[in-house]
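Reopening this one. Same input as before:
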Amino acid sequence: MLSLCVCLRRANIISCTAHLTGNFPNVWKHFLRKQPGLRCQVSGATNLVRAYTASSPLLSNYRRRTDCFRISSPVSSVPHLPPGRTQCGHPIHTSASVRALPAPVVWLLLKPLQKLAAVIVGRSLRGWWLALPANRRELFRQWVRQHRWHLAAGVVAAVVIVSLFVLTHLDEAPVTGRTRLLVFSRENYIDLAAITSEMYLLEFKELLVPVNDPRHQVVEKLTQHLSQRNKDIPEVSEVTWNVHVVDSPVINAFCLPNGDIFVFTGMLNTVVDVHQLAVIIGHEMAHAVLGHSAEKASLSHIVDLMSIIVLTAIWAMCPQDSLALLGHWVQHKLSQLIFSHPYSRTLEAEADHVGLLMAAKACADVRAASVFWHQMEIRDQLSGTASSPEWLSTHPSHTNRVNQLDRLVPQALQLRDSCNCPALPATDPRAVFSKNAHMLLENAAQTDRGGRRGKQGAPPSLTSLPAKMPAALLAPDALLPPSQGDQGGRVASIGAPDSAVAAAADASAAVVGPASTEEPTVQS
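Same output, byte for byte:
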């Protein structure tokens, strides 16, 4: 640090005092020594350099102004100087640092303005064209025909620029190695996620489950266990994972890019054991690990930029605003069906894959993953919920998810065996649940036919499914921490080896059994 005090009289330097600390560049010392009319005195003990001119009695009649300068360098500052003050004793007033808004926030603010600008430009072009006389329109058409090659060259140049932009923003996804477009970095979305997390915490303030609640403790321990077993992935070890359990019947869970996980009690009431919960949380953590938020925003950014041209053309060519609005709506829906929804389903499938591998490394019974989606499918059938076609949804259908997870189970089991996890039982929970689920659907169909013939009986209701926190998640041995003393790397299972099979059997038995007014407790 160089603290430099200069006493000025108009433009003439009268004296200067400088403190040099550390190995400050010699060029400054050379500068002070070589100034004409200045004499420099160096003190080796304090590293003090004084440069001054010969004193003159004439100078005492003038008003002197003292200016202080502080020049920073990589070396440490002078220890004896108080903070914010120089050797001259004048305080330095600094303004507070101002951070720029994250790029995604700026894009979110500009996104509606871009569409509004396209609408205004399109309507302006339409009004300009309608106001032209017929001869001027013909002249404009002739001009376009004469310069068609120049216009084509401009279009080609624009395509080349967009292609270069896309090629220079390609990135490789963690874990899977998939090549993807990434306009916004993962770090940008981590900053935005902190703001989003505060908003969610404010929204769910009255619904958050206390940290000493068993439901929160189960999710917290399981999350820490997953992160510990997957700490070889940099995107997992570099993030602090925080758990928030929301007391709401909504069957949902999500994870923000900064590692804040929100799990609704409706989801906890749907899973039947800790293995299914491990797959669900692994899926949500995989979204954050893979940076899917930034990836989806990047694709949306490119699509929006391309749609500006389309929107401008729609509003310019449609003769009426009502037709332009209809064309605008059609363009938005086609953009979702062609780009947004398929890409979102691809990211969900990738999160299923990575989440299953993360659960396998945590010694979960990955065969229970497809059982969970079988449960969700049966729940929808019994409740009469109309499921929309997959091509209209942002998520894969339950059936496709079951099929994909079943294809990935052999790979996940090999990974689980390589992590020195306890052996799994020979009985497959998928086979147990499928058999009992088939019986359930047959009984439901017979009961429904009997009701139509006037017989007593009611179709099975959702009260037959797990309606409260399964006891399998609250069992003392449901979640065991990693063994610290095992040199061979063997880690205790997150549940009893046969818990997934028992949970599948008990859950199916509870569903198949007669409907009861009491909420059944699923045992593992």
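So the earlier flakiness isn't reproducible anymore. For the record, Residues 276 and 368 are 6 Å apart (CA to CA).
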